[in-house]
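Postdoc handover notes: sequence design on the structure in folder B. Input tokens:
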């Protein structure tokens, strides 16, 4: 349609040609794409005539509201521009005639390609550098929550770069049918995204994923994002391989190696900076060869040669049951190299070799986790967790179990039902197949079963309550398992995302581990000093409000009254302070509340204003509802929903976690003032909050409150519990209070 339209606008011309470049040249227009064109002339026509023809084309395009990237050049001028501008040079590689003088267009196309090939020595490094810079800016399409389909690593632009590199050097091919299929899928998604939003947009936002999936015939958005991830990984892996080949070719033989083949084990050698197979290697008779080759690549800081990967993919049989000892040893050795293991494992995965060794991997391959708490697909998360675990192997007695447990801890996410329950069953099958002894399999299963135990307890339970430590010690059972779970917690959290691990959480987990270790060593769990302290009592004796800030700790002393906790929480929220934990106590009509806080957006607040507003809130002189609503409107854009499917809100009750209080755990979407609204609901139900733990999992808050009723007892009455649940959900706007 665009060709026909522009042909009509140009009219009959013998000394001019309208040439499409870039995406238009490739015939890859999306609904909101610009038209990229060059009006080429041979210099015979006057400048006025050329300008008149150009305006006859440009103005109707502009009037139609269509983006236009245009230029007017002679062939010589176009080549000169391309010589100094990488983008222009790449655009001309896709050039084709739309209308006008075919000979003129053919001359430009042929000479621009010849110029590209001739300048390959300079242009390929420039192109490689631009590709790397683009990847750094836009991230990886395969793993991002909202991927940039065009510019990200593994996106459409990478395929164009591959094609350009393949024109310039024989060491690169454009990737074949696999890359073309991946490219076509991403292009279809981009087309539908443009159609959906009615404008240029190449970032596939969460709110568009369900509709795009439906339009393209995918079962749901998860299926769409899995397909996008698989396509992007194919493109990214092919691109990485291509740019390594380019770098190796530029280095030459002397830059790649300093001597003859270096043996790396049976069937493996280091050759020209790559791990290659020997002529007598026998993949069909040695099922450990692929894993040993990957381990050798990771350990030598190189990569598996493409020819070796192709041969392994063609000849390697499924892994026998149980695995040969050499295969298990190779897997552990590979995982033990840490971050250097990720690329070789990705190479095995791209060739289908990882699934051949571990069939359960297929269930998690490219499986999305569509919330901001997780930055990786499930399979990549597992690889990253194992890489992180490698740095912690000195902290445990069984490094092999730590590495394999980290690799498999979330394998259940690929199977129906609760991922922990499914993982326990799956790892119970995998462990014996890998050749682990029954006792070791039991440890691996426990690592999967309890991989969330330490972070959940540390961030949601009162560590000063002896019952907390006793319960964890009873579940863990022994010091070796505790060490493994502690290391797994750190490795898993670091691989999850920036919100999953930080100084606060690390400190809580370390504190819990130390206390549980002491209990497992036979030491009694000592109760922590209770509030109020002697210093608090001295301040409470004055019978007046006090607000004290020390670092990230805010202490409030005030006459005891219903709703005091929620008033303080609301005032802190007004100043962008997230409450991490809190403790409270009352004595002789005075209350003391200690809050551990953290700035929500990184910058510390004006503590003088914070103190003033807390004092006003405590005295009932601050309209918290109105002020919080105003702040929520002001910051609505900064806290946009970051999950495809918000978690179902829940209010849970636990009487076993404490000997004296009921733990009320609230899971709900995050937002400004959530803690204020929850604690106001608890106060309305005559519940006294003694302590609280607050954690945010990307889009969701998981808040735990140790509460007692008006008589100082646990909340045992089922009817009262139901009213508490309704009150909390109503305050959060999640049920109709009527």
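Designed sequence:
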């Amino acid at each position: 349609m665009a060709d026909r339209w522009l042909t009509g606008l140009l009219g009959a011309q013998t000394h001019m040609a309208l040439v499409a470049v870039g995406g238009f040249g490739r015939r890859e227009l999306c609904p909101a794409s610009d038209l990229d064109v060059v009006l080429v002339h041979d210099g015979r026509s006057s400048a006025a005539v050329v300008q008149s023809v150009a305006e006859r084309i440009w103005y109707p395009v502009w009037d139609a509201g269509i983006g236009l990237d245009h230029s007017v050049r002679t062939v010589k001028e176009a080549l000169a521009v391309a010589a100094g501008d990488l983008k222009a040079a790449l655009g001309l590689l896709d050039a084709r005639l739309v209308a006008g003088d075919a000979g003129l267009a053919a001359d430009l196309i042929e000479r621009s390609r010849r110029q590209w090939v001739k300048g390959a020595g300079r242009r390929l490094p420039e192109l490689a550098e631009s590709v790397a810079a683009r990847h750094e800016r836009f991230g990886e399409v395969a793993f991002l929550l909202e991927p940039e389909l065009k510019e990200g690593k593994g996106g459409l632009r990478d395929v164009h770069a591959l094609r350009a590199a393949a024109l310039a050097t024989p060491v690169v091919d454009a990737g074949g049918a696999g890359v073309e299929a991946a490219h076509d899928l991403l292009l279809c998604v981009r087309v539908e995204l443009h159609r959906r939003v009615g404008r240029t947009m190449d970032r596939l936002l969460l709110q568009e994923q369900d509709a795009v999936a439906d339009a393209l015939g995918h079962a749901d958005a998860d299926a769409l994002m899995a397909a996008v991830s698989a396509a992007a990984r194919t493109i990214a892996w092919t691109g990485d391989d291509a740019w390594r080949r380019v770098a190796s070719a530029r280095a030459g033989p002397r830059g790649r190696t300093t001597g003859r083949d270096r043996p790396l084990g049976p069937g493996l050698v280091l050759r020209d900076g790559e791990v290659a197979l020997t002529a007598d290697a026998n993949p069909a008779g040695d099922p450990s060869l692929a894993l040993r080759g990957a381990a050798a690549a990771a350990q030598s800081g190189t990569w598996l040669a493409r020819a070796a990967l192709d041969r392994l993919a063609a000849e390697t049989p499924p892994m026998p049951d149980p695995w040969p000892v050499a295969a298990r040893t190779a897997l552990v050795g590979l995982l033990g190299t840490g971050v250097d293991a990720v690329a070789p494992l990705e190479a095995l995965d791209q060739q289908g070799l990882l699934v051949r060794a571990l069939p359960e991997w297929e269930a998690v391959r490219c499986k999305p986790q569509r919330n901001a708490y997780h930055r990786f697909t499930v399979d990549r998360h597992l690889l990253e967790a194992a890489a992180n675990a490698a740095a912690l192997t000195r902290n445990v007695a069984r490094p092999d179990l730590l590495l394999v447990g980290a690799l498999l801890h979330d394998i259940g996410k690929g199977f129906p039902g609760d991922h922990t329950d499914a993982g326990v069953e799956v790892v119970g099958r995998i462990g014996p197949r890998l050749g682990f002894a029954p006792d070791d399999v039991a440890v691996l299963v426990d690592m999967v079963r309890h991989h969330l135990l330490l972070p959940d307890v540390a961030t949601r339970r009162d560590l000063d309550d002896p019952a907390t430590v006793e319960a964890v010690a009873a579940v863990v059972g022994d010091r070796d398992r505790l060490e493994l779970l502690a290391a797994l917690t750190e490795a898993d959290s670091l691989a999850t995302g920036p919100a999953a691990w930080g100084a606060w959480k690390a400190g809580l987990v370390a504190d819990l581990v130390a206390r549980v270790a002491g209990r497992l060593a036979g030491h009694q769990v000592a109760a922590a000093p209770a509030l109020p302290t002697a210093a608090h009592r001295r301040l409470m004796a004055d019978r007046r409000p006090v607000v004290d800030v020390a670092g990230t700790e805010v202490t409030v002393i005030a006459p005891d009254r219903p709703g005091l906790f929620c008033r303080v929480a609301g005032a802190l929220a007004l100043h962008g302070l997230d409450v991490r934990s809190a403790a409270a106590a009352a004595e002789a009509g005075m209350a003391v509340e200690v809050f551990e806080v953290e700035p929500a957006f990184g910058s510390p607040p004006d503590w003088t204003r914070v103190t003033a507003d807390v004092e006003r809130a405590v005295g009932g002189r601050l309209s918290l509802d109105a002020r919080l609503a105003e702040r929520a409107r002001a910051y609505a854009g900064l806290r946009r929903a970051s999950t495809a499917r918000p978690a179902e809100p829940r209010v849970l009750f636990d009487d076993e976690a404490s000997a004296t209080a009921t733990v009320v755990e609230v899971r709900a979407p995050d937002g400004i003032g959530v803690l204020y609204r929850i604690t106001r609901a608890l106060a309305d139900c005559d519940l006294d909050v003694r302590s609280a733990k607050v954690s945010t999992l990307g889009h969701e808050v998981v808040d735990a409150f140790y509460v007692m009723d008006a008589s100082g007892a646990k909340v045992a009455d089922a009817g009262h519990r139901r009213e508490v649940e309704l009150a909390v959900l109503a305050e959060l706007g999640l049920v109709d209070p009527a």
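Context for whoever picks this up: Residues 370 and 647 are 12 Å apart (CA to CA). Don't rerun without checking with the PI first.
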